[in-house]
């Protein structure tokens, strides 16, 4: 009796996840749904429910944790689902789990692993004739991942396949159409075709507004893209307006400690910097750092790059003691993570900058100390 009741609840909530998140994106309620799914899943497991039901639970919990940026936990659940799907030869559902794993690896910036699992998923998808829209999504995911790997010819190839597949099947007004347009827009952006990229962005926005509420994260993604194009066209005021719209949505959906929220904070910071509003730029850059450290820890390349931006802003504000703080954090990362053939050049650059800061602070002994360190690494200035 208990198992039957739990199955009904589980089915209701796992069916509810995509629809709920697609239309509402209330993160607090979504976390509550995930908690209940995990509780029910544990009961199902203890009641020796079928493998298929347990795999569904693992997949649902993985989706939930991915959406709130608990990426390692999401992967744990997905790989549990993979083990079951392999054992019971549930091939089509295995392909879906592979796709979900790829998405998480992409969020974690592990793009080679993302590609590996996207191809595993695609192999199954093409073999079993999944819906055209799902296949177009798979093609576009490959395009996006290759773009992140800076393999642009492959990105163009897969994006074009996705566009052609949708056109051949007369699919013109679905969210996937917007997704492929945004990918194509980004490729135009990379090739500095900013006006053409903007046209595609607004076309994508029109499509999404027909089926999504204004506060949906997909709308925020388009706002981000539009802002980026205006930024490159040096229309910083309009760029800032769209970045702020994107950030408001991302923060309400995902919270502060999320990669999309943090990246948008970083973009807002850079825009304020271009407008010479350095105090505001610093505030937003520190928000970006907080989010990235929460997701990646403090030794991820994205975090170290943020240290560099922050130190630049402190320098603009004449706060040289704070520049030194972030330069020393950068040094610590370099010593732990840099390749030996790249280390000396990077370290001596940081030493020189620290020396210059101590000069500005009128602390000559420390300025000399770091200048000597730079000289020992071949500094000639």
Query: What is the H-and-E element order?
Result: HHHHHHHHHHHHHHHHHH
Instruction: Please give the radius of gyration in angstroms.
Output: 24 Å
Shape label: globular
**Distance linking N and C termini:** 80 Å
Mind telling me the CATH superfamily name of the domain at 1-128? Answer: Tetratricopeptide repeat domain
Total helices: the number is 18
CATH topology of the domain at 1-128: Serine Threonine Protein Phosphatase 5, Tetratricopeptide repeat
Q: Assign the CATH architecture of the domain at 1-128.
A: Alpha Horseshoe
The amount of beta strand, in percent, is under 5%
Structural class: mainly alpha
Low-confidence stretches: 1-30
Q: How many strand segments?
A: 0
Overall pLDDT confidence = 84
Which percent bin holds the helix content? over 70%
Report the top-level CATH class of the domain at 1-128. Answer: Mainly Alpha
Q: Tell me about the biggest sheet?
A: none
